[in-house]
Write a structure and sequence with these properties.
By secondary structure, this protein is of the alpha+beta class. The chain is built from nine helices and twelve strands. It is globular.
Length: about 270
């Protein structure tokens, strides 16, 4: 049976997440109190054997020995809060509907779907890219084009960012964002033209970028991604990018930043 885990007890759940778990910056950030989120776990004695972590973003994470009953509990907890992207890397399933959908996945592959389909979840595929070392970020060049000005995102600039609602949904508040994470914006005539945000957790920083439609196709996302990588490297952080497998633009950004493709992984997606 899954029981809620108080914030002070959450760091013990880190033992269930190995270094190759996807979106690990998000996992660490929630367990370290750097991102808003919740956690549930199943215990055997004092040791956690399985857990579910939710964030204010769609990303939710399962790990440990997740049997059919435990997954059913997780799906019930998540069913009322779409959209959800449930990540649980494990062995491929024998479920016929899941194996057809997940059959082409490599590396982490699929996970046992059980009755996930009956709860409205559908399989999807994501990719993860990363730098091998923080120093890889230090080598990236950041040259600001003439019409733009680079600015760190602080509380004063927060109200002007393009992704404000989404960023607030992930980070909780401007103060929380500035205290635990970081981001940069390119300003054009006093307005935000493009922005990049880094979720910091453990020794990782996961990149998110957004460019105003009027300023796209100028390489601004790559430029800001390089700035996030360079700043993260100064803090000893290694950069990670994850995206849906069909996000051509995100894959192009990761490639331009010199990130290697680590693996693909299956998720269960519950749309809004």
């Amino acid at each position: 049976m899954l029981i809620p885990v108080e914030a002070s007890e959450r760091p013990q759940l880190l033992t269930l997440f190995g270094p190759s778990y996807p979106n690990l910056a998000f996992v660490h950030a929630v367990l370290q109190g750097k991102l808003p989120g919740q956690a549930w776990a199943r215990f055997q004695g004092q040791a956690a054997t399985a857990c579910l972590i939710t964030t204010s973003a769609p990303f939710c994470f399962a790990s440990g020995d997740v049997d059919e009953a435990t997954l059913g509990e997780m799906l019930q907890l998540l069913a009322a809060r779409p959209p959800v992207k449930l990540i649980y890397p494990a062995a491929p399933t024998a479920h016929p509907r899941a194996s057809d959908a997940f059959g082409a996945f490599d590396a982490f592959g699929a996970f046992d779907a059980f009755d996930a389909f009956d709860h409205g979840f559908a399989p999807a595929k994501r990719l993860q890219f990363s730098h091998a070392h923080p120093q890889d970020g230090e080598r990236l060049l950041v040259e600001i084009p003439g019409p733009y000005r680079l600015a760190a995102i602080d509380e004063a600039l927060f109200d002007a960012i393009l992704w404000k609602d989404m960023v607030l949904g992930i980070y909780g508040s401007p103060a929380h964002y500035v205290r635990h994470h970081f981001g940069f914006a390119l300003l054009h005539e006093g307005r935000v033209a493009a922005e990049a945000h880094g979720v910091v957790g453990g020794d990782l920083v996961e990149l998110g970028v957004f460019t105003h439609p009027d300023h796209r196709r100028q390489g601004l996302s790559v430029l800001l991604g390089a700035q996030i990588a360079r700043h993260g490297a100064r803090l000893g952080l290694r950069m990670v990018v994850t995206c849906d497998a069909d996000k051509v633009a995100s894959i192009a950004i990761a490639t331009a930043l010199g990130l290697r493709r680590d693996f693909s992984y299956g998720i269960l997606d519950l749309p809004r």
